[in-house]
From TrEMBL:
Organism whose genome encodes this protein: Paraburkholderia caffeinilytica
Domain of life: Bacteria
Keyword Amino-acid biosynthesis (UniProt): no
Name of protein: Alpha/beta hydrolase
InterPro entries: AB_hydrolase_1 (IPR000073), AB_hydrolase_fold (IPR029058), AB_hydrolase_sf (IPR050266)
UniProt keyword Nucleotide-binding present: no
A GO term for molecular function: hydrolase activity
Amino acid sequence: MQNPAIPPLASEFSDLPATASHGPLRIEYRWVNETAATAPIAVFLHEGLGSIAMWRDWPQTLCERLGMRGLVYSRPGYGLSTPREHDVKWPVDFMTAQARDILPALLDALDIGMQERTRMWVIGHSDGGSIALLYAAQHPDELAGAVAIAPHVFVEDISVESIAQTKQLYETTDLRNKLGRYHADVDSAFYGWNDIWLNPAFRTWSIVGELDTIQQPLLAVQGHDDNYGTMAQIDTIGERVPHAQLVKLDACGHSPHRDAPDALNEAIATFIKSPSKAPTSTPARSPK
C-alpha cells in the first residue's frame, strides 16, 4: 500500500518477471529531461536509503547540464517499488544481483536497446555507486561510462560504525518519520539496508577484484568529510582501474549532490565532455 505521505510525482511503473534471484517486481521509475528524446541516457542509482523522491531535482539539473535524458528508479525495497518482505534478509551479494539482474531487466522492459546502451552512462551514489561499478564491470560493451559517487568497494569500520549509529537514530528519534516521506514501507527500506550492513558476514564483502575488468571511462568522487567511508575507497578504484579519474571534494560529506552540488556537477560535466583529458586526481573545493 502506498504511503499517503508520498505525493504521486508522475512516477511510472514497470513490472519485471520473476527470475532465479527474485520474485515478480514492480519498479517505480521516472524520466527526466524527457524532451531530449535522442540524447544519451544517464541512469541514476540511488543510495542505500534512497529513492526517486530523495534525489529531489538533482538528476534534472545534471541532465540539463549534460544535455542527456535521465532514467531514475527506486530499487526493490525502496520508494514505491515492491517492498522487501519483512522476514526476508538480503544476501551479502545483493548489490551484485542489482547490477546483474535488476537493472538489465528494467532496461529490457523499457525497450532500451543495445544501441542506446552503448551511449548510456550510469551515475550512482553510495550503494548505488557500488552498483554502477559492478554494472560497468559486468557489461563493458553496454555502456559509455560510469560515475561512482561515494561508492563502497570494501567494508570499513567507519561505515559500520556510522550505520550502527543510524539504526539507533532510526529507533529513538524522528528519523523514521522523515524517511517515511520517501518510502511506501519505510521499515522494509531501512532494515533491508541496515541489517545487511550490520551482518557480521558482510564485513568481508568486497568488489575490489571486479574493478579490474572495467574498461569504459570511470569517474569516482568522494568528499573529505564522508562519515561512511574514507578516501581509501576511491584510491583503491584508482589503483585497480588505472584510467579512472578521481575527484576529492573539500567541505563535503557522504552526499556530494546535496553537500557540494556545484562542484560535483562541474566535475561530472568536465569528465563526460572530455574524459581522456581529465586529470588523474583532482582536488575540488565546494563553495563555502
